[in-house]
Amino acid sequence: MTIPFAESTPGQRIAEFTSSIITPQILQAYAEASGDSNPLHLDKSFAQKAGFDDVIVHGMLGMALLGRLLTAHFAPQDIRNFSARFVSTIPVGKQIHCYAEVAEQSPQGLLLNLYAQPLGSEKTAIRGQARISVLAPK
Amino acid sequence: MTTPTYIGYQHPVFQVEVTAQSLGDFNLAIAAAPEPGQEHLAPPTYMKVIEGEHGSSRAMLEALNIELRRVLHVEQSFEYFLPIRVGDVLEVVRSISDHYTKKDGTMEFLVIESRISRTDQQLVGCSEQILLLRNI
């Protein structure tokens, strides 16, 4: 999306995308690349013993997708902070819709609210926030 | 009997070198396509990869005798002071900064704080990870 950030208003959605289907292969690749080999994300029988129907998506993979909303529009060095609450787990096999809304705008920069929601679900799985130090997009 | 507190537990300090291979693999895994000229800069959640190197998260849980299947990652935050770049050698300090219960002790939480610095001691960033320890 190409909305000029200087003209954005609180509540306005300024960026969004929908991921591909998060397959077990993607979870495996994320585990290898990130070093997070928790079997909750890789081993169905372990996940079932832990109380889930199947493996679940790494919360940090979901947060990394939200991070793509940031790096698609801002230089990495302009991101001051970034936080996320993993409100509900994301089952494997879903696409994830990620979007960013303006929470607050000041001369110092932008505060964004970020959301990740599995397609077909009513519930937001990850709620995030990020502060960007400058208004000029890269 | 009081519940033992893990506050103050510190994982041994370790160093990590940021390589183009590791960064490239991570970008591929999250389907990120850095802009030309930005490939040497880490995306925002890569700090978690740095702090988790050498299986440090699992080692901390094992040292505290916490079963992995009880653990759910419920919150994560990062503060950025300097960009993380290919070639950086970073020092990681991780400790348990808080340990508390909610809802009459039925929900137990652990907070792991990480501080990441360059070898010249310049602080690159900090993070905080909150884990829910479920009673299963």
UniProtKB/TrEMBL annotation, chain A:
- Read off the Pfam families from this record: MaoC_dehydratas
- UniProt-listed GO biological process terms: fatty acid biosynthetic process
Any one GO MF term held by the record is: fatty acid synthase activity
Kindly give the SUPFAM superfamilies that the UniProt entry links to this protein.
Thioesterase/thiol ester dehydrase-isomerase (SSF54637)
List, alphabetically, the GO terms of the cellular component aspect: fatty acid synthase complex
Where does the record place the MaoC-like domain?
9-104
On the tree of life, the source organism's domain of life is: Bacteria
Transmembrane regions: none
Indicate what this protein is called per its UniProt record: MaoC like domain-containing protein
Per the UniProt record, the source organism is Pseudomonas borbori
From TrEMBL, chain B:
Q: Read off the SUPFAM superfamilies from this record.
A: Thioesterase/thiol ester dehydrase-isomerase
- InterPro entries xref list: FAS1-like_DH_region, HotDog_dom_sf
Domain FAS1-like dehydratase, chain residue ranges per copy: 39-121
Q: Which branch of life, at top level?
A: Bacteria
Q: Identify this protein by name.
A: N-terminal half of MaoC dehydratase
Organism of origin is Pseudomonas borbori
